Each structure stands twice: as structure tokens, then as C-alpha cells.
Amino acid sequence: MGDGNSAYGKKKFKRSRSHFADRITADGRDGWPVTEGRYRLVACRACPWASRAVISRRLLGLEDALSMGIVDPIQDDRSWRFTLDADGRDPVLGIRFLSEAYDARETGYPGGVSVPAIVDVPSGQLVTNDFQQITLDLATEWTALHREGAPDLYPERLRDEIDDVMHGVYEDLNNGVYRAGFATNQKDYEEACTAVFHRLEWLSKRLAGQRYLVGDTITEADIRLFTTLVRFDPVYHGHFKCNRWKLAEDPVLWAYVRDLFQTPGFGDTVDFDHIKRHYYEVHTGINPTGIVPLGPELAGWLSAHGREELGGHPFGDGTPPGPVRPGEEVPASGRP
Question: What is the Cα 214 distance to its own chain's centre?
Fold first, then answer.
């Protein structure tokens, strides 16, 4: 995420490349074969990049194969902390700070500690923090461990189009809101903010006549767009000054994001309390008082969206995921 995988300051915002880019694959070519129960996903529900992996894991039914730890949305100078767990330790890894897994992999690593991270449980070492690749591999390399009825989130016949759509969304919107929010001069801010809304307008036109971004089922492209849109009104509109208009003021995008929110695997992973507290309390350079706003009201997320009229099948020939696993539920404080 931005706080652990980017560079702020007086220069233009620049997101760093993932330093640990090993892949967990079916053939184990990087030394990390897909193995049930061997790895642990560490995520923060506040982070859009980590939330992609949380959603993918749930949609694909990988809960038994890939355990998950959730860190506190508020970091300290040691970065991500397991203070939500008993005794302040991750119950599987036995560590207090995610940085311990980074240190186990590379002592004295000078870069930031970011989520999502996948850790090798036997050795305690970080395997990868490559947020762009993790979800693609969950969809394509972990197929032997997918649940029955799991959707194909990265169908081969649509990959070129998915990649093209995701590239534009990443540059202008996923990362663009950060470039606007952390801009330190008017020119950089205006360029980034303008690109954000040009992309939103493009998306609104595209989604006016089709239920999902690419094809007639949910794909990786929808997951990556959702994790930014669900944060737009609560944090990006005010905190990052992306305030030309609210998402709720665009009928198409507001209906689209509510459709996904109400789809099993999406909204049931979202913690609005974590999202708001992280951005407003951690980014002290932008919000020095640390005050977390009361709004916006959340009840609208559960209102009818009408997107079924566009057709499409969320899970293709598959089925929705089952109920959220005990212990992985979002607390009532974070739900509409």
C-alpha cells in the first residue's frame, strides 16, 4: 500500500516497485510451490491493494489453503502491527510486526513494509509483496485448490482486454488518487485530479451498457476497480481532495459499486471503520489533527441498484462463495 510501498515528500508521488517479487506457482519454479496450508496472507482491510487479495481469496474459496492474518489499520514507526490479535501476536506466525517476516527474508532491508504480503509459515520468511501479481497467481496458479464452483477471474480469452483496462484504471485512478492526495504543488495535484475524473467518466460510459468491466462476469478488472471505488467517498473525495463530484452523484458508477458490494465476497470483506481511521489518522502530513469524519452515511450501500437488468452472471457457470468464515467477519463497527 501507499504507506509502505511508495515515496512521498516534496517530489512528485511515486509508487515503488515491489522488492520481493517471487511467485508462488503450481510448478514451484521460484522455489515456492503452491501447497495447501504452507503460506499466510497478511492484509490490512484499510488498504486497497491488500483488499484485492482478500476478495480474490474469498471468491476462489482459498480459505483452507491460504490462511489470513489482519493487521491493525493504524501503523506506528515499526509499520504494520498484529495488535488486533491476542497478546499482540499473529497466532500462526507468532510475530508482533510484519517487519519481522521481512527481516527473516532479508536482514536490514531498507525499503518499506507493505501489504499484501504472503509469508512462508515454516520459515517465517516473506515470500512476496508484489500486489499486482499476487491476485493473478491466486486466480491462475492456485487452481488445484480452488473451491468447487470458483469463478475464472482471469479468463485466458479476455486477458489482453482485462490487462488493457486495468492498466488505464491503475495509472489514472488506483494510483491517481494517491498522486492527487500526496501532491505538494498545485500543478501536480491538478494533473492527477483531472486524470482521476477523466477515468471515472470513461468508466461511467463503459459501464452504462454492461454490468461488468470486461465480459459478462466478474473478473480481476472489477476487483481492482472496486477496491478504489468503495473508498472514494469515505476518503478520497475529502482526504485526497478528489472532490469534483462524489461517486454517489454518478448514477452508473454508484449502482455498479453497490452491485459488487452486495455480491458475496466483496462487501463482506470491507471494513469502513478501518478504512477511515487508517487514512485520516496515519496520513498526518495531510490531516495533522487526526480527526476522523463522521460521514458519509453507509446505509445506501445496501439499497437496490438495478444492475441485474443489464444481464451478466457474476460467477459465470460457477457459484457464489459460502458464508464468511468464523473469525474473518468484519466487525459491526465497519459495516453499513
Answer: 19
Confidence of residue 76 (pLDDT cuts 50, 70, 90): confident
DSSP state of 41: E
Q: Are 55 and 7 in contact (CB under 8 A)?
A: no
| pLDDT mean over 302-321 | 97
Give the catalytic positions in this structure. 47, 178
How far is it, in rounded angstroms, from Cα 2 to Cα 178?
A: 8
| 262 phi, psi to nearest 5 deg | -85, 0
Give yes or no: residues 212 and 123 share one domain: no
**Reduced 3-state DSSP string for 60-102:** HCCCCCCEEEECCCCCECCECECCCCHHHCCCCCCCCECHHHH
Query: Can you give the C-alpha Rg of the chain in angstroms?
Result: 19
- Specify if 151 maps to a domain: no
Q: Tell me the one-letter amino acid at 18.
A: S
Residue type, 244: R
Give the dihedral of Cα atoms 190, 191, 197, 199; nearest 10 deg. Answer: -170
pLDDT value, residue 130: 96
In which domain, by residue range, is 60 found?
A: 6-145
Taking the model in full, what pTM does it have? 0.95
Distance CA 50, CA 120 (A): 17
CA 283 to chain centre: 18
**What's at 157, amino acid-wise?**
R
